[in-house]
From TrEMBL:
This is Methylthioacryloyl-CoA hydratase. NCBIfam families: PRK08150.1. Its EC number is 4.2.1.155. SUPFAM superfamilies: ClpP/crotonase (SSF52096). Keywords: Lyase. One of its GO terms (biological process) is fatty acid beta-oxidation.
Length: 267
């Protein structure tokens, strides 16, 4: 573990590595971690660093809220084409999380609103405290999602539910979001970061190629016809089996050196 988290992006991000796991903290708590373009660029640099230095990563927010979404003060000043370029910057950055090389767990405390929910949706596992909440107040603000939410959030929870959230601006609790498929784990208040870090350490033990294939093959296969998807799956599955890591891990299991799958209570 790096003794103290370092800061990146003029303090907007905290960064540390704990064994194989990088911890990336959104660090603008006075503005509820609202994301300016500068903030997104700093986040992108931290994601690149984590990808080079770790085998899994955790994304969390400092302060009482994960992220209040787009920095509305900055956005209100933008000419049209700058807004387009800003949205495309978010897309590129979030894609380095979603279809990158290492899995990300998002620890959600308090609000995950607008672009904050879009950022969470680009990670692979969302751990939300029972007091956390989700909202898409774009309708209220007269804007639209621009951080990939129309693709990622609608795939997670369905476009009808996403449309409901955008049209009504209502807040959805962590437990309802879990029921909708937008959250994977609901945990007691104050424990999301710890739980997310545990999960990241577990994922970091997986074969690197398998993690890479999960991140990069699954979303692409979801976009394919069933026929193309099954063909692609066969190719990826065969490639995975060829890796030395897979050969070793299969041998370890057959020679009783690796643990069995446990019943759910043990997790
Ligand atoms: C902000 C932002 C922001 C807070 N941009 N400054 N996002 C929203 O519409 C969410 C707007 N924020 C809120 O509803 C609330 O701030 C929270 C529910 C997240 C938190 O409430 P609370 O009571 O803890 O904090 P606060 O007092 O509202 O905010 C503290 C400060 O942060 C305050 O500034 P101050 O100078 O008065 O201290 C707020 O103005 C500031 N702040 N949120 C700028 N978002 C790529 S497209 C994505 C589209 C979207 O993300 S739309 C959703 C935008």
């Amino acid at each position: 573990m790096t003794a103290h988290p370092q800061t990146m992006g003029d303090g907007l991000i905290t960064y540390s590595v704990d064994g194989d796991v990088a911890l990336i903290g959104l660090n603008r708590p006075d503005k509820r971690n609202a994301l300016s373009d500068r903030f997104v660029i700093a986040l992108g640099a931290a994601v690149a660093r984590a990808t080079a230095e770790a085998r899994a990563a955790v994304l969390h927010g400092h302060g009482t809220h994960f992220c209040a979404g787009l920095d509305l003060a900055e956005h209100s000043e933008k000419p049209l084409f700058e807004a387009v370029k800003g949205s495309r910057l978010w897309h590129r950055t979030f894609e380095t999380i979603e279809m990158g090389e290492i899995p990300f767990v998002c620890a959600i405390t308090g609000a995950a609103v607008g672009g904050g929910f879009e950022l969470a949706a680009s990670s692979h596992i969302r751990v939300a405290e029972e007091t956390a909440f989700f909202a898409l107040p774009e309708g209220t603000r007269g804007i639209f999602v621009g951080g990939g939410g129309s693709v990622r959030i609608s795939r997670l929870i369905g476009s009808a539910r996403m449309g409901d959230m955008m049209l009504t601006g209502r807040s959805v609790s962590a437990t309802d979001m879990e029921r909708w498929g937008g959250v994977s784990y609901v945990v007691p208040a104050g424990t999301a970061l710890e739980r997310a870090t545990e999960i990241a350490h577990r994922m970091a033990q997986n074969a690197e190629f398998t993690n890479y294939a999960i991140l990069n093959a699954l979303p692409r296969i979801a976009d394919m016809s069933a026929d193309s998807g099954l063909f692609t799956e066969a190719m990826v599955a065969s490639l995975a089996t060829m890796t030395p890591e897979a050969k070793q891990r299969l041998k370890d299991f057959l020679e009783k050196r690796s643990p069995k799958v446990q019943a759910p209570d043990a997790h």
